[in-house]
Specification:
With about 100 residues, the chain is α+β, with helices and mostly antiparallel strands. The chain has a domain of about 70 residues. It is about 15% helix and about 25% strand. It contains two helices and four strands; from the N terminus they run E-E-H-E-H-E. The protein is globular, with a radius of gyration of 23 Å.
Length: about 100
């Protein structure tokens, strides 16, 4: 199996005007330069700042069944304390449509 590189990407400008995104990738290629070049081919990463964090151990990615040449985007799904949750809306009471009799 090829080496699996851990690479982070910071978007220089985030579409939609939000804060820049940080994305995490696992790239299975023996050459580190080839792994970076493969990510650069993605339109959304052409201008991103790419950083090789290191090499992932085979045990770390065994459950993904990684094959040579594959790229995995790893997405965090947790929220930190600094991120605000969307406030829950209180249910609104409906006005009665009952017709009052005289």
């Amino acid at each position: 199996m090829a080496k699996v590189w851990k690479i982070t990407a910071h978007e220089v400008e985030h579409m939609g005007g939000g804060p820049p995104l940080k994305e995490y990738y696992l790239v299975a290629m023996s050459d580190q330069f080839a792994a970076m070049s493969a990510l650069r081919k993605r339109p959304t990463l052409r201008d991103a700042d790419l950083t090789v964090v290191g090499e992932a151990s085979p045990d770390d990615v065994e459950w993904l069944d990684v094959k040579d040449g594959e790229i995995f985007c790893v997405m965090p799904i947790f929220m930190t304390a600094r991120q605000k949750r969307t406030p829950k809306r209180k249910p609104q009471r409906r006005k009665s449509t009952r017709i009052k009799s005289r």
